[in-house]
Amino acid sequence: MAKIPYPDDWLDIDTTLYNRSIKLFNAVKNILSVNIELYADPQTLQGDIFLFDHFSRFETFIPQFLIYEKTGAYSCSIASGEFFDEDTLLSRYLKQVGVFPHDHDRLFALLTGQILRGRKVIIFPEGGMVKDRRVIDKEGNYSIFSRITGNRRKQHTGPAVLGQGVETFKAAIRYAHKSKNLAQLQRWKELLQMDSIDQLLVVAMKPTVIIPANITFYPIRASENLLFKSVELFSDNLSLRETEELLIEGNILLKNTDMDIRMGRPVNPCCLWDSLTHTLMDQVAPDIKTLDDVFTLSSAARNSKQRLLGSYFIKNAQCSRNQYMEIIYTNVTINLSHLASTLIMYCIEQSQTNINKLKFYSILYIAIKYLQNNTDVHLHRSLLNPDFYNDLINGGNARFDYFISVAKEDGLIAENADCYQFLPKLCADFNFDSIRLENPIAVYNNEAAPLRAIRDTLITAVSEFNKADRYKLAAWHFDDECRTLAWEKRSFSKPHFADINQLEIAVADPSPFFIQPEYTNGFGILLIHGLLASPAALRDYGRYLANQGYAVLAIRLKGHGTSPYALREQSWEDWYGCVQRGFNILKAYCQRIFVAGFSTGGALALKLAAEHYPEMIGIIAVSVPLKFVNPALMLVPLLQAANTLIRSVSSYEGLKPFIENDTEHPEINYRYVAVRALYELRQLVAQLDELLPQINLPTLIVYADEDPVVSSSSALILFDKLGSKNKKLHAIAAHRHNILMENTNGTWQVIDRFLNELRVVSGGNSNLDGSVSKGSIAKSVSLSDNGPIVVIK
After folding, report:
1. Distance, first Cα to last Cα, the chain
2. 563 near 504, Cβ under 8 Å?
3. pLDDT at 452 > cutoff 70
4. Which candidate, 285, 289, 288, 311, places its Cα nearest to that of 298?
5. Helix axes 89-96, 15-31, angle to 10 degrees
6. Cβ within 8 Å of residue 753, ≥6 positions away
7. Rounded to whole angstroms, how far apart are CA atoms 454 and 466?
């Protein structure tokens, strides 16, 4: 059938249909499992021409809808001319929502008209899907594979040509105004369907801006999915290309894939225009009568001035193209698979055939920590939130495990007891339509290649691993604890949590702190705060201990110091993980460590003692809550079960998710306690009951004889069940709960005597009155990669 010729003009956007499409897209987006994140500031979204790299067909429908959601502006885009070969329902729909065929003779003129009317234009300058993500050739220049020619080619200059064409027509409008050519201005006003000449002039004064953007999908999966199986059921003999695209696209849509869209800095489409160009423009402007005249300056110049200006335009387009492609490719959102793939390919380049597992994990962790401080690299959120990567160094990271399992299934690596073996397939050549299926490691490596900092950082990380600086590693782990707090604050400060958050009045800094004294006594103390509190409750006590020469680390238990909603999401195992990490940080500085915990922190300290770490030499457990004064807390398990059931079957938060807490220190503690937190505390105490007989470390148990929260019988039960032969029980005369923070009736001095006795036994430097050598004052040192760290205010 003969192709239907395109009309000279093109339908304007049907805004009613466009708006319906937006609503439909939002409904479908909520059903799909793709997580779309747009990173763009409001000023960037005011651009005119938006450019994106092209990896999947699905992504071509996304940018215009996101731009509309953020700005209310309508967008035009370009599609293959084959969609318009026949007058079909699809072709009519595409025309009505602003889609133009790529082979329309007046494409640039039509798009220029749309931009001048306030529309945005969406373009994919690669001109096709770049499945291998290889965008740099052997000479280091940007280029991509062409399916048509089978060779590599440059990316298109079309967006640059369009951009400077729009700017040229604006110059013609300004010239007509300067020349008082009202008739010409009136014709252009009518052509562009504007309300007035003033509106036309306002548009002509606005600079034309190109916004390059990158789309990154993570992870890339190639397993069978519902979309693939459905098509396969009704189709015979799918081609390799069809099979591959159904597998990749189906997994993007249906299997919880992150789609990060990151808009880069704006590009001026007239980057090379100088005074000579502007002079020529003024001389050529009178010849420009229509939008089409702008785009014939190079191809159908009518005089020498037009030819010269046209040659300038060609050079300018190439310059602009190079700028926007570099911005597109360097705005990739780097994830763990990028780092692992780049490291593997670097090892192969160094003629390595395998890598030790621990070395692999450690290098990746070190690289993450360096990249977090590199403002030129955009990291995936899983590399910014320590919850997603801090277990990497122990080889237990879920995202890394998936990466390894896929690599093993694809025959790219083999796993031995203590190392990963690199297989020959990693270096094999693959068909353009099969590489995403056969070698995702090569795809990830190619995608990260434009960011030279990724490879350089990994090389640095290899060197750092060989040096094995324990202080630097401890500083990074401490930084992770601070980052976890910041991430938690952001996550639970959203309007959805305002009902409880607005009732909280805590203002004390909840950050973990670490004080390295100027003159150390050789001992360290790990401090663990209680339920609902934060390290702020231990800050004064930490200073007091540091002034005696102790290295002091106060760890923050997850869920504390941010929002009661955050606490509701944590288990006692999460709290214990914080304690373990804090202990490991302190070990870098001290080989003899005391652990002191208040209330729930005391229970966690005893749990840690049951692990029998050789560095631990004593435990101080203050006001450990084995039993409570309020008998109503016995009903917590039933209430938690009801809350869990209600949340699982409805959108309600539960029967009673939070209980008001009459705290002694509202400037530090939550005023509302999550029922789940109380339930988790009971679970921890139940766990502890089995462990107490196994604890053999010297232990001091301190409690208030009239504690209004924890029953005084808790201390007696704890003392009787404790397995240690060296154990002490001390009652403080007080009707307050937080005797450690308040130093009630000399609580700190009671602990001092216990610490000093153990220091003597351990052969440490001891002054039995609690004093230290002259000048032994806690020294404030900035958090750094090279030596002592402290964060205390």
Report:
1. 78
2. yes
3. yes
4. 311
5. 110
6. 768
7. 19
